[in-house]
Automatic annotation (TrEMBL):
This is DRBM domain-containing protein. Gene3D superfamilies: 3.30.160.20.
Length: 93
């Protein structure tokens, strides 16, 4: 199925519902960089953690979640994991 509308987080929720797997679990992480704090996100889907590709300013926390959700959607829709154990190939996005 094509996921053309909505946010990446919405697309990820829909993909999980269609596959009847647990809803995605997001985690925000920060790193102090000089006088500022950078933020990123990771999302766990089907037992696999997918990390955002970039770090973001604190006012853009949703962008960090969208980044991680995009990585997870692309993984989930390009593969057909048979079980969490067999899909944990050590892939870290």
């Amino acid at each position: 199925m094509a996921y053309n509308t909505g946010t990446w987080q919405e697309k990820l929720d829909e993909a999980c519902r269609e596959r009847e797997i647990q809803a995605p679990m997001f985690q925000l992480m920060s790193d102090r960089r000089g006088g500022r704090t950078a933020w990123t996100s990771a999302v766990t889907v089907y037992g696999v953690q997918h990390r955002a590709r970039f770090w973001y300013d604190g006012k853009n926390l949703n962008n960090a979640k969208e980044d991680a959700a995009e990585v997870a959607v692309k993984w989930l829709t390009s593969s057909a994991p048979s079980s969490p154990a067999t899909s944990r190939s050590g892939r870290w996005s």
